[in-house]
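Readers of this paper often ask what the protein records in our data store actually look like. Below, we set out a record of this kind in full and without editing:
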Amino acid sequence: MPFDLSQFDFSIITDYIEVVLTIGWFLLFYVFRRLTERAIRLDHKIEQDRKRQRINTADNLFNLLLVVGVVLIWSSELQNIAISIAAFMVALVIATKEFISCIVGAFYRASTRPYQVGDWIRIANYEGEVTDSDWLSTTLFEVDLKGGSYAYTGRTTVVPNSVLLLHTVQNLNYMRRYVTHTFSISRQLDDVNLFEIKDEILEKLKEYSEHFHEVAIRYNSLIEKRLDINISGPEPRVRISTTPEGYNTFTVSLFCPTEEAVEIEQKVTEDFMRIWYEKRDTNLRDLRVTS
């Protein structure tokens, strides 16, 4: 039966040749090294210290030649190994990209310290109180800031630290004590001129904020100095506007303790409704009398 060369694995011969060359190179290296050291020792014209220096230099040179020779002999195999390692590293980076981004985000947080445990913050679309922060994520206990109740919702959000590299971080910690609370009351009917209610509502706002007014002034000044910006407050403000749909909007803005914001909003809304209906009933009676 004829021998089929196409089925023969020539890599076996290649590996055998590399092994033989390596063994031969080690033997040649050993022989030349021993001969060189012997020749230096037998040279009586050289001082003993100089002999040791030359032997040491020869050893270092032969070690370098040994490494270079082995690398040249096995260069093809080493190249394949290097390519395999590079491919593995690329695959590893791709597979752990999110993990690496979280670690980098943790280093960014540690270096800039934009927040710490207990702060109220907003990251991208997530907001709440920081309850835990580690190398991979930041845990937020959600606070109803958009709804204006400033109460804990009971939901917990785990934000990966990679988000810190893509989005800004807003520290809302000053809102834990005092907040600029803004709310609006809309009426569709034109039976009452809202400007006639404005002064009465402002008086009610001053009445409800009297017990914390001095503290609000000091806290407002403290925030402005710390943030180097001007914020609204502490005096309450009322703005009257209209919408394209024909609604009259009564907007109230008040710098007040966070835990009292909703309570004051409800009191003001109740006063507004009472005054509005009183004004409307008065206007209707006057209209019937004149007619």
In short: The longest strand covers residues 178-187. The mean pLDDT is 80. The radius of gyration is 41 Å.
